[in-house]
Amino acid sequence: MLRIKELVKRYGDEKAVLKNLNLEVPGESVVSIIGASGAGKSTLLRCINKLVEPSSGSIELNGTELTKLEGKALRLARRRIGMVFQGFNLIDRLTVMENVQSGRLGYLPTWRAMTRRYPQEDIDRAFHLMERVGIAHYANKRADELSGGERQRVGVVRALMQEPEILLADEPTASLDPKTSKQIMELLRALASELHLPVLINIHNVNEAREYTQRIVGMRFGRIIFDGKPGDLNQDAMDEIYAGVPAEERDGAQSSTHLREVAAR
Ligand SMILES: Nc1ncnc2c1ncn2[C@@H]1O[C@H](COP(=O)(O)OP(=O)(O)OP(=O)(O)O)[C@@H](O)[C@H]1O
Fold this sequence. Notes:
Low-confidence stretches: none
Protein name: Phosphonate ABC transporter ATP-binding protein
Order of helices and strands: EEEHEEHEHHHHEHEHEEHHH
Largest sheet: 6 strands, mixed
Strand content: 15-25%
InterPro entries: AAA+_ATPase, ABC_transporter-like_ATP-bd, ABC_transporter-like_CS, ABC_transpr_PhnC, MetN_ABC_transporter-like, P-loop_NTPase
Bound molecules: adenosine-5'-triphosphate
Structural class: alpha/beta
Helix content: 25-40%
Radius of gyration: 18 Å
Distance between the termini: 35 Å
Shape: globular
Number of helices: 11
Domain ABC transporter: 2-246
CATH architecture of the largest domain: 3-Layer(aba) Sandwich
Strand order of the largest sheet: 6-7-8-3-9-10
CATH superfamily of the largest domain: P-loop containing nucleotide triphosphate hydrolases
Keywords: ATP-binding, Cell membrane, Membrane, Nucleotide-binding, Translocase, Transport
CATH topology of the largest domain: Rossmann fold
GO molecular function, one term: ATP binding
Mean pLDDT: 90
């Protein structure tokens, strides 16, 4: 169970981008977070895995308060949070196997990780997961030789190698074509149920959110203003979440997170 209470995030002296946000995600549920660009969706995910430091409030994962952790305790907690990225975040020159094994870094002594001498059980687990998502035959291929959908499957396996207690996906399909997007959403939904994992997906494509997730959380200006089943997301709710956003930009627009990542490359 993920339990977020009164979460506030402020970048520097700017006004808060998350404003006293409350959210509970029980096990095994697939929740999508939608909202206009700048609503605070990525910041929320980044606060959960502490890529950014919350300004105040609490984030509890299965009874562990994450916001207060530091040093080793933080590292241990972080390895329980799997993250899937829009741009995949793979190391191109490494093989698929090497990339997925990087999900075990939080568990291995440094010498073992540096020399890439992975324990047999980690190799077995990697093959099992790669077979599950259909990429086992690519184990020894370089990551940059794969298609976008295959790369995202590597990203998913890497996250699962962490034995996570929750999976966070930050626009996992935004770099993919529609058919591949559906396959990845289908996969995330299936894995949530097979592995009894809560999955939190930040997503721009509202149609995919409706089709593949059981619960939709709508954000606006750092607040949750909708929280319900896909069937409850009617036109009024959509208009409130996306007020002021042109219709053609509501779906599939490039996110500011993506643009920032591209600019940083
Ligand atoms: N590292 C940062 N430093 C300063 N401001 C930031 C930073 N990251 C995000 N912001 C600001 O916080 C606000 C929320 O951004 P965030 O990326 O969380 O929104 P989002 O809903 O995920 O948007 P998008 O869908 O476009 O990615 C925006 O105004 C953004 O400019």
